[in-house]
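Ticket #4471: structure output looks truncated?

Reporter: J.K.
Steps to reproduce: submitted the chain below (251 residues) through the standard prediction queue, then opened the result file.
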Amino acid sequence: EQEVENLSGLSPNPEKDIFVVRENRTTCLMAEFAAKFIVPYDVWASNYVDLITEQADIPLSRGAEMKGKCGTNESELELFWLDQAYTLKLSFLKEGHNTSRGPEASWRLSRIQFTYDTSERTYFKDAVSPGKHTASSHRLSALVTPAGRSYECQAQQTITLVSSDHQKSVQLLLSEVRLQPFDIPADFVFSEEHKCPVDQREQLEETLPLILGLILGLVIVVTLGIYHIHHKLTASQVQIPRDRSQYKHMG
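Returned output as attached by the reporter:
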């Protein structure tokens, strides 16, 4: 028995969507992300002779319908919105490989397919030869994550898809991603996250000044401590006068 749920309404971010696939009353795929497609399309110039290229910015709708498929090594999430004028299919693959540390497994986003209809009037205005087109990835290996962990990336990532509409390049912009298509430990619970390199770098850039500040502060404290101890030791030493005439003032 399979259930699919669009939980996007639970997100405080109106641009972020949440999707869950459950099989036998257990979560087998979870996905949270904000997505937008930038799609070039042709319109007539004012002279009705030349073609010019316009750009449609298509967000993933919060009310998207969905279906999903979970497997041991292959999983899939498919989303439809605006009366199926737009369809997004994400395919995931888990595979093992040998490393210097021995055999290891990881999962990745292996294929993206985006179908769009240029006769749809919300985002496309006066497209030449309107109709359905499909934009697909080619030999994709994205969001690579160790098996048993979830993928997390707050930073925006751009994935280029090639369209059946005269090989135009469609851009998929993904951000605020938390995703796990395999090995979910408990219902609605992500495994430990694997952060993307951009997030790791930004985290390091944020914490590095703090670390350097702490080190500098520690150096100053130690230096002042050494100076204070040295000053006390120096002050406690008895100064013996070198001039014999000063002996009469002692005692």
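Triage note (M.O.): checked the attachment and the full token line is present. The chain has two domains: 2-195, 196-234.
Status: closed, working as intended.
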